[in-house]
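Onboarding guide, step 5: your first structure request.
Type a short instruction followed by the sequence, for example:

Predict the 3D structure of this protein.
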Amino acid sequence: MSGFVLARSLRATGGKLALAAFRTRIFGRENVPPGGAVLAGNHVSYMDPILLWCGSSRPVHFMAKKELWESGFLAWVLPRLWAFPVSRGEPDRAAIVTATDLLARGELIGVFPEGTRADVGAEGLQAAHGGAAFLALRAGVPLVPTAFLGTERIWPRGARLPRLAQATISFGSPIMAAEVLPEGGRKERVAALTKVLMERIAGELEQARGR
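The system replies with structure tokens like these:
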């Protein structure tokens, strides 16, 4: 991927500082495959996408709510940090096409299937949306179950600024859509793939807690 000088410079400097400041432990980087893939993880903190952006083995693109593009500065900087807009709460064909094109070019997309951050102390994972599985099926790329642990202590819900605490990111083995082939159409396949994905994320969380 050419260009994106700002993002590459920031990831090489501020990104490394952020990982060091939050004593971020990263496991399973080798599970991020070459080529396009969807990195899909649990969501407990604003720090989740930040640390994933900093700590992935390769650059990660994220969808960001379209309202952020209403700010002149953010509208300028977000595309330069591998982000692209999405309309939340409704199907956004433009965002789907952008994500599919990026995956087809061998890029990584970061997605949080739960959609919103879970409350601190909540048991288990929240109900998942099918967006991550849909993109993986549409682009024919693997899903990488990704677990975030400790980020809820760094930037808990309601806190204005992050705090210093240790974080863990754990990348699991890729899931290929071919592993999940139920009878029925795309809707059924998306549901089945999403179920497998969330089970794998839960498994990664358990492993991360034991490390």
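Each response can be followed by summary notes, for example: The chain has one domain: 5-209.
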